[in-house]
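Aim 2 progress update. The chain analyzed this quarter is reproduced below.
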Amino acid sequence: MLKTFILVLLFCVSEIVYSNNIKLTHPYLSPLDSSKYDVKIIFNGQRPGKPPLRFNYVNLVMKNNYSSPKWFLFPYWGDDTLKTDGVFGNHGMPDFNNIEGKEYYDSLISYKFVEIRFVADYSGDCFIAFYLPGNMYLEIVNYIIESWKDIPDMEVWEVDSLLVNGETPLNEWLPYDVLSSSRGTVKELFNDTRDNEINLNWDYKNSCPRTDLPTEKIKYIQSKGVKKYRVKMERDSIHND
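Predicted structure tokens:
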């Protein structure tokens, strides 16, 4: 009995230490919600593009405390918003499936994450998504968010499922694994050589697009089980290292 009590106590202490180390808090969420999921965006700097385009370098932190995987959705442009009704259409380009899948990894730590981009003809239908396993923490160092103006905060959605044409889950529709690694930090994300980037739509062996990509045309992607909130762009740092 005493041994069991000590093990439980040690587990609780380790979880408290872990939570304190990553300092995940959210000013826009109620205590009930913030115990379930969290996102932090820490601004590191900005590089100008062709005016008025800006490239914002941030530390992007996502935490999924649920036992099941969740999608985390962001606007394609940081100063934009996501489609209010949660149905992302492919109106003007029905003959082209606008799904871009890219994998990034940290070779020193063996962590990886997958970024999914849905590119549509209307900016409000575009989104960037990450599929996180249950009980997962992921920090992406120097992630780039593009915007047309400075962004004090961003809209973020947590989504149970994304359904292609309202039927097939996107993670099952694609021929490659979109689930990110378990808990970890991916550093040096966008280096000059991009040697840590893998285009998941490309067949590197034959130097051509993958032949196992679905032939079904995407008319729209529907989100189910959505929780919406806004995340303030912070100016401090989570870690001192």
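The longest helix spans residues 2-22. The mean pLDDT is 79. These observations will guide the mutagenesis experiments scheduled for the next reporting period.
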